[in-house]
Amino acid sequence: MTQTKQPAGGSSTSASDFIAPISSTGDSKFNPCSASAHDVLLNNFQLKKKSYRVLLHGQQLVWERLQKIKPPHPTSDTKAPLPADSPSQPGGACLYSPQSHVLHLDDVISVRSGDTKVASLKPPPPPSSNRSSSGSGEGVPAKPTSQYLTINYALRLSKSQTDCNRWELRRLTFFNSDPYIVRQWDQELQIRLYSPSPTRMRVRRLLVFINPYGGRKAGAQTYERHVRPIFQLAGVDATCITTQRANQVRDILLSHDLGVYDAVCCVGGDGTVAEVINGLLFRRMRELELDEQRPPYIPRPALPVGVIPAGSTDTIAYSMHGTADVRTAAIHVILGQHRGLDVCSVSNGQSLLRFCASVLSYGYLGDVAAQSENYRWMGPRRYEYSGVKAFLSNRGYEAELRLLEEPDHLLTTPMEEVPQSPDSVCSLGESLPSVCYANCQRCSFASSIQEQQSTLLFQEESRKSQLSLREQPEPEDSHLTANESALLRPRPRPGNLQLPTGSISSMRNLANEQWKVVRGNFFMICGANITCACARSPNGISRYSHLGDGCLDLILVKKTSLLNNVRFLLNTAGRSGDIRNLPFVEVYRTRKFQFRTLAAAGDEEYSLAGSCQPISPPGEMGASSPSTEFSSWNCDGEVVTDLDITMRSHCQLIEVFMRGPHSYSKPLKSGTTPSTPASSSDNVYCCCKD
């Protein structure tokens, strides 16, 4: 433990005055809320010309106002001590007095010291200038002169009555007349701020793609006005590329060197996010020399992705953050906390077509996407115009779907025998469906199961590879290469999640797959990877879809009357609606489904795979319009015209900067206490209106 001395004229403070128990660094059982590898700093600072006692304890910064009390003797002048020590909570959070202000370092954006207050408010230099400056004065530490220490941090507006998921920037400026104390605090904060963490990565160099044509065509203005100042405040070296055509982002990610960047960020709508994800995934397949048409598996990209909303609906950003606020999304990129996001692969009978990040829809939404291409001159209004036309037409499409179902193991089997497969999370029986929130236990459970399976598969493949080399070394042996084996190594994750221990045989037992066939005349068919929420539909079309559980929701809306279609839209628009209660809507939780039209089943001699043109058999191009028979697929805003489609969910295939949305709740009456949903362990309730 390090306890610094106070400047001349300042009062000394003992570490025992703080509530948080502080032990020496040599103690092996250090308090859970602190990091044993770091020192504990305790000093007096001035904040807004008032004296505060400031403590840096592990990953927490605590400050409390110093209050003068009536001296017991006329000659003594003492400061009021903090309350006595109290034991820490079982969860690892330290208890401080009610007058204490606690800031977690995960919410700190940057730290800067300066000789004056104005100098400490300047943004930190980029990483390149840091290296050059440190190399010039190497070995000769300069005499410190800074007396001001500014801490920029982010705060979630949990008590907001309109948007409790929105974050805003805050600032603290401490003053101490001793420059050595200020330097020590600055150095220690920088070390802890950029210390490696399994779920946090502070970005230093960022590749940013800006789509100036998405939404209201304000992508460039959005970045310059709201995003760039936040990146500069954090000292991020951002390289910006403004796109000029479709699929330019994908082409750049496939051909350029990305080794100098820590992450990739996009400023645009859902289509721009889909381009980034597709580019990173196909790039990784090329690096591993996998067949892009029929890959044996889908590798995980190395770079995480940041999403800045600047489109028409921004369903991906809204589903991840619970809001479409631009500054909130930029703050999440800076804070660096990331989670795994499910990505679905879309393929036909012959090859892999693309990857889907939000929704793959046939019927109504497919018609809206196809028809809106003819009205691009209308801007975002083209979706409303095309949507009204497709809604009034109320067309239905004959289709057959085969979806993969699994039995509810959790209801009939003890926890010790739950199959250890990430896909089996779809079959975890739940009395009530859960909503995905921040710190979602369902997504954490799926991630941990995937790591457990990856470890066993890596050990098994390594053992098979060694046996094949000893017994019969042939170049045709189908064992994993070094690059492929590296992908199977588990990612580091927090180890505080209790997992059920199952046998290896139960984990490998995927032969009990149950296929369910559904036929009918449908108004709309949706494969939802996320909730697809937006400002107009806060719950989205798939309210209970999770961000990282390895499953997708298959939503089947049967063709009925226009009145029922209005009921469906009203249930998706309000916060209290639930489409599962509608009799003409069926929702299935699955990890894979196959689609085919009943009309195309009898014409299998015509190959329509990979078609990007209007579908029509040869010789009938001049006959009746094919749009009267078949619809199109809407895949993240892009039109796909294949009739033989297979959609499969891949559990947490890509890392995204997010923490997850927080729940909305009406103001509680006096005397009542909120109940935490089963999907979140530390959900924060706020007073958000319907």
Automatic annotation (TrEMBL):
PROSITE patterns: DAGK. The keyword Kinase applies. Keywords: Kinase, Transferase. One of its GO terms (molecular function) is ceramide kinase activity. GO terms for biological process: ceramide metabolic process. InterPro entries: ATP-NAD_kinase_N, CERK_C, Diacylglycerol_kinase_cat_dom, Lipid_Phosphate_FormReg, NAD/diacylglycerol_kinase_sf. GO terms for cellular component: membrane. Residues 201-350 form the DAGKc domain. Residues 70-96, 114-142, 464-499 are annotated as: Disordered. PANTHER family: CERAMIDE KINASE, ISOFORM A, SPHINGOSINE KINASE. This is Ceramide kinase. It comes from Drosophila kikkawai.
